[in-house]
Design brief:
This protein has no helices and eleven strands. It has about 120 residues and is mainly β. The strands form two sheets. Strands 2, 4, 5, 6, 9, 10 and 11 form a seven-stranded mixed β-sheet that branches.
Length: about 120
């Protein structure tokens, strides 16, 4: 079982940066693919990025590629999302998720990211 808690969200001006953290608990963390999703007001939740258990494979939505970086520290049971060159369209609640049993089963409570212009 995995429990996820996000932190690091906040208000930032366009062009600025934020670093989100996702603290995970559970012995399955190291063998789980981790991901970040986001949901803007009135919009569907969308995939942002993911990273496999070893950290050797990452995937990014085209809208964030080159600006966002996902990483993980399995020893600390933590996954990170470094967000640079933020745009107002990045404004959303960001969720950390863990893939267990071939599906995105576990989710954090979300952290608000607001980018002003």
């Amino acid at each position: 079982q995995v429990q996820l808690v996000e932190s690091g969200g906040g208000l930032v001006q366009a062009g600025g940066s934020l670093r989100l953290s996702c603290a995970a608990s559970g012995r399955t963390f190291s063998s789980s693919t981790m991901g970040w999703f986001r949901q803007a007001p009135g919009k569907e939740r969308e995939f942002v990025t993911s990273i496999n258990w070893s950290g050797t494979n990452t995937y990014y939505a085209t809208s964030v590629k080159g600006r966002f970086t996902i990483s993980r520290d399995n020893a600390k049971n933590t996954v990170y999302l470094q967000m640079n060159s933020l745009k107002p369209e990045d404004t959303a609640v960001y969720y950390c998720a863990a893939e267990v049993g071939g599906a995105w089963r576990y989710w954090g409570q979300g952290t608000q990211v607001t980018v002003s212009s």
